Amino acid sequence: MDCKKFVEEQIAQIKRTVGDAKAINALSGGVDSSLVTILGYRALGDRLKTVFIDSALMRQGEPKRVVDTFARMKIPVELVDAQEEFLSTLAGLTDPEEKRQAVTDTFYSKVFGRLVKESGAKFLFHGTILTDIEETVAGIKRQHNILAQIGIDTQEAYGYTIVEPLKTLRKDGVREVCRFLKLPKEIAERIPFPGPALATRIVGEVTRERLATVRAATAIVEEELADSGAFQYMAVLLNDRATGIVGNKRRFGRIIVVRCVQSTDARTATATELPWDKLNRICSRIVTEIEDVSRCLYDLTPKPPATIEYV
Ligand code: XMP
What we know:
Strand content: 15-25%
Number of strands: 9
Shape: globular
Order of helices and strands: HEHEHEHHEHHEHHHEEEHE
Bound molecules: xanthosine-5'-monophosphate
Helix content: 40-55%
């Protein structure tokens, strides 16, 4: 692929499309929305408003890390604290699909929808890639109708335009353009992370306390497996407990599952054959460093029959 040509064409196209109007986009910190932010900012400068929505479901230090990474590239990102909105919608929910729907609805209809309307922007940038379009057509993914998702009636909202600068690229193409632009490795080479974030890594109810447990375990797993070369790795909090011993006392503690998989496109996956020493080290850190965790398990199940995430 001719990356230079792609970047120049997209910037020119964005300038032509947006003219002197304003645009807005939501940055997640993932590779697709990061590249969209960079192309949009190069084309529009301060007429692009980029927001990072802190849903309370992010990984340790993530909101600040993303804002700081972009600040180093001189791209302003507005951090929007929506923690309470997400947590109150998720309270009491245990069904996986209801939890996913709650995150989607809070993100689009409540928070991003409100920001779009307040911003005066008529153009919304979105990091849709070719695979998203193919999977939507094939019925694998839910339809990405962003205007409807943010609660904007397309008839009434005449004038809103969705701009999708990456819709001709697949993930490897997106990474290639990021490398061409010399973007930091923490953007270009990031492992996949799901939109509903840590809510997909908690079986059962999502609460602040349970998020803190899975967030601490995720930080340990990501640190220990950063150089594993695996496709994706994660920690998951189960909804059950098991007995352990702390000092001389029995403790009915929480259970963390570690998952690390090999895959090329996430449609199928196999468990990574990690060295025994590495597994022992991760297990030992998780049960000693995290309050109230008494067991750590390694998941061997391939996809199919399992999925990669737990929710
Ligand atoms: P599953 O669990 O379905 O996941 O085997 C396949 C890949 O997709 C990611 N994933 C998501 N990504 N929004 C996303 O952007 C989502 O709702 C979502 N659910 C799963 C998952 O991390 C894995 O890489």
